[in-house]
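hey so u asked for the seq, here:
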Amino acid sequence: MKASVLIMAPIIALSVAGCATQHQHYDWGSYDPSLYGYYKNPTKVGELSASLQTIIDTADKHHAAVPPGIYAEYGYLQMQQGKNQSAVDFFKREESHWPESRVFMERMIKVASTPDPAATAASSAP
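ran it, structure tokens below
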């Protein structure tokens, strides 16, 4: 019986230690609460934008991976504000970091690169 205890004790200890580690692969910052706040009140777009920018800046500072979709969402917010070139840059970053988003990002780049017909008509009016 003593031999079985000596064999089982390290196995149990290793099993428990293996379950105790919880390493999060990405730092999502305050993304969840800021996105929820934005959904509840769309005027909080500035808070969501700041949260996304913080996530990107923190990841860049620590040479870590930006979570999937963050570049794309930040680019979309940039596009909504009329900053289309900035949006295209973030869409390209999303595509390069997450190749599986290529088809969607190519479409978003095309949308952001297409001039707005209403803005073109307004600028050409006398």
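The mean pLDDT is 85. The helical segments are 2-20, 31-40, 45-61, 70-80, 84-97, 102-113, 117-124.
lmk if thats what u needed
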